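Closing statement on the zinc ion sub-project.
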Amino acid sequence: MPRDIHLDTGRLANIFKARIKNTGCPFCEHDEWELPLQAGATGVGLPWARGQEYLRFGTPAVMLNCKHCGFVRLHSLNALANIIVQDECKTSVLEVSDE
Ligand SMILES: [Zn+2]
């Protein structure tokens, strides 16, 4: 994976705003989410399992934490097109079109 790609958090926020209707936490009903993201990371990977073995790669996802109760939610990056962008085109992909 090239080092010059990153998760476009502004575009992610816009897509969530456009597509997600119920933003409250399903457990505590608070609506405060944080995106924990290590420097240089584009998200988390959900490992596949084969029998009793877990592979070190799998579905890429974005993880958000409820700031109130700690509930963790995941969104597949495969369903969120163009969230991972090249640095050089960062300014050209910030616009989000409604679907
Ligand atoms: Zn919560």
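The longest strand covers residues 53-66. With this model delivered, the sub-project is considered complete and its resources will be redirected to Aim 3.
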